[in-house]
Amino acid sequence: xxxxxxxxxxxxxxxxxxxxxxxxxxxxxxxxxxxxxxxxxxxxxxxxxxxxxxxxxxxxxxxxxxxxxxxxxxxxxxxxxxxxxxxxxxxxxxxxxxxxxxxxxxxxxxxxxxxxxxxxxxxxxxxxxxxxxxxxxxxxxxxxxxxxxxxxxxxxxxxxxxxxxxxxxxxxxxxxxxxxxxxxxxxxxxxxxxxxxxxxxxxxxxxxxxxxxxxxxxxxxxxxxxxxxxxxxxxxxxxxxxxxxxxxxxxxxxxxxxxxxxxxxxxxxxxxxx
Amino acid sequence: xxxxxxxxxxxxxxxxxxxxxxxxxxxxxxxxxxxxxxxxxxxxxxxxxxxxxxxxxxxxxxxxxxxxxxxxxxxxxxxxxxxxxxxxxxxxxxxxxxxxxxxxxxxxxxxxxxxxxxxxxxxxxxxxxxxxxxxxxxxxxxxxxxxxxxxxxxxxxxxxxxxxxxxxxxxxxxxxxxxxxxxxxxxxxxxxxxxxxxxxxxxxxxxxxxxxxxxxxxxxxxxxxxxxxxxxxxxxxxxxxxxxxxxxxxxxxxxxxxxxxxxxxxxxxxxxxxxxxxxxxxxxxxxxxxxxxxxxxxxxxxxxxxxxxxxxxxxxxxxxxxxxxxxxxxxxxxxxxxxxxxxxxxxxxxxxxxxxxxxxxxxxxxxxxxxxxxxxxxxxxxxxxxxxxxxxxxxxxxxxxxxxxxxxxxxxxxxxxxxxxxxxxxxxxxxxxxxxxxxxxxxxxxxxxxxxxxxxxxxxxxxxxxxxxxxxxxxxxxxxxxxxxxxxxxxxxxxxxxxxxxxxxxxxxxxxxxxxxxxxxxxxxxxxxxxxxxxxxxxxxxxxxxxxxxxxxxxxxxxxxxxxxxxxxxxxxxxxxxxxxxxxxxxxxxxxxxxxxxxxxxxxxxxxxxxxxxxxxxxxxxxxxxxxxxxxxxxxxxxxxxxxxxxxxxxxxxxxxxxxxxxxxxxxxxxxxxxxxxxxxxxxxxxxxxxxxxxxxxxxxxxxxxxxxxxxxxxxxxxxxxxxxxxxxxxxxxxxxxxxxxxxxxx
Lengths: 274, 747
Fold this sequence. Notes:
The complex is a heterodimer. Chain A is an alpha+beta fold. Chain A has eleven helices and twelve strands.
């Protein structure tokens, strides 16, 4: 019978410490902000050993094109240097209390809605992670981390191409916070003298993913950006993976994604035209 | 109509006095039940059923008792076998078949009636140990067939009772030019108070008295029931109410107070108990789910002749408030449209689901949702503007005999301020359609003609010229304490800061039913007003006797007692001298209402519906409240805004979806909860017309806003989209599917 409180919470001071702890207690639970994990312990019971990752100071640092895995969502939302989609995604999550604790590392690693991961995916983000076997830091794409979860994330970053514009929408019961139905992130940028776009989609029970066919459709429509947005949104509707529930049937979720993609693309198109 | 003009003759009434507890609450210094420190207290945690309907065959406490710091564990066989109604009803009724339907709860159940029903309790010296030990209690169950659907409960005879208001309406229906029927299902909804239920108990062996602390809304009824369950004299039980972090009706019920009292008696140590958020969802109460059928008959000119409403209420596992909620639902329709003849028949059934209980409005929001929807449908079919239809069924402004006549006048003015005439349906290229909606309601202040409806208050002059009000009422986080202080200050002629309020203690020598049914100001405020009036008389009697002054010339002014001749004496000096000689300046008054005092409200909303996603956005809202004279515009506005937002929550957000075990939402996130992020621009207008029955003409207002808000939103949505909402909440997917269905039918 597992209790609702961990037996031990370990706070490593650096990566060496972390490696040591993981060697000593390989089954330890890696905790970031704790906003998703700790409430779940009330129902499922707590792990015996917990390693509190934000105790490592390096994970709480950030730069203009990257942030440590333990930087809070509130800090991301407030950082004017960060792309709009990333700030909008951070701001859309929960309320101020949770945003002051929650982290990008936790958001990407959790099985919750992962709004931040959707925005990062559209920004072609990279992820730095700690390999406990070699006690070194490695780097891979966010897509790879989402496909092969379980890594100890230490940093996420992105490279902004020329004329980068981004937009994030979370569609839920309310404008901010509350139950989420679908999220989309749009990123347009200049590539080889033409305009490209990245479209990422997420939602409850759905792994954040890109929509390459919709992206290609947008690029291939030679007419107006409005028409390109409409054509891409129709492809997105078929391409996006959704997980239907009793409350939101698949047909409805597809329609929501269509509307959000079209409106998101139109929003960035307007910025481009301006 | 004013918003709100201060009467020059009054010093403290109608003045926006900040809440007396505001500073302590916003700085975190206010002490709630969960902040309580009780040295040496044990913690109790309940073991609850995972099954909707199951008999306890055997309880194995061995693993739990082996856990560190465990003091004791008890099952249903160990505790007193008394049946009671959790809503404090039927205590005096002799044991009978009808009583056993209402008095259906035991301290610990031998047969669990719903998921979350308590069957055992574990007591430990720390809360953590009690939680962990409770998880180690093993129960052998005999799982019984369960009824989760109210229709099934009705057909199988699981009936709590019926409430009827008979009337010969068929003749009027035959005369009607238009008869409209509509059916609406309103789901349950959890209150989600910020603070969970909690209680503590301490037995003083020396005095033989049991003290129970609780964040209840009804301390005196709680005392009566706890004494009954524990077999103690009422005088041996003291309830101390701690201000709760939100009540909304959910704390108008006994939960574990008597059990905590019993544990304190058994163990000889103080015992504490605080429900977790999960227990709030599985073991407290929800708003009742109700299915309503409404039929109305109108003349061509929009005059309502008759209505016939039937309601099927899902009481859940225990009777609780079910029958009185039904009665209130029916009465609200009659109060709102007093000129028509109304027939009502309601049936409450029992299912093996979370019991329903009191929820802000007490059935009125559900009833008026259905009724105001059908009135709007009638307006459409008669080609009469929705506002005009309401006005045709209210007494005209010129009718001096009706107290509702002023409301009709204010309704017209409010419509003008809101811009009702600019209500034309509009749409934009993104598929957003817009329209306005309206609904009205009449909500009684208090529970007249309930037998116990009364309040007792005492006012005492202190030696320094300040005063203390001892009131049976209690503040249910509404700000009523501040309003009571204003009433006493006004009557005594001293500043509000010089009035101290003592409430929520059953040892104060006063009495009241509790803080609910928007009765605190009308009933409790009247008792306070009359006690203050008598205390002032007592003061003037003493001055007259001492100084030979004419009683009727005396007044209290700026810290002095003076008369028209220019004579004066310092108030504190007189009080000090008088009390030093053994004189007491105390007065007590009892207030019993002699009639129903309805308050009126109307809600105007403007909505935007996104037809591509089904999302309903409220763009603006105006709430007109006729709550008599507004005692404190600051807290009154807060109450109205809170009510509107709670109405929005019930209409657009709060989802009570039952799983296969009949269990509703497990978390706040699952249900959805309106927060400050969901606020919309709300204009609050007060009629501010003094009413004869209330203290300084005040009526209740706590439930005024929530009652019409849902119907106004639904009416606006129907106007905007042509889709008639027949179930709640109007979440985006529900709305979108309804729009698709409508489109398919049209094509």
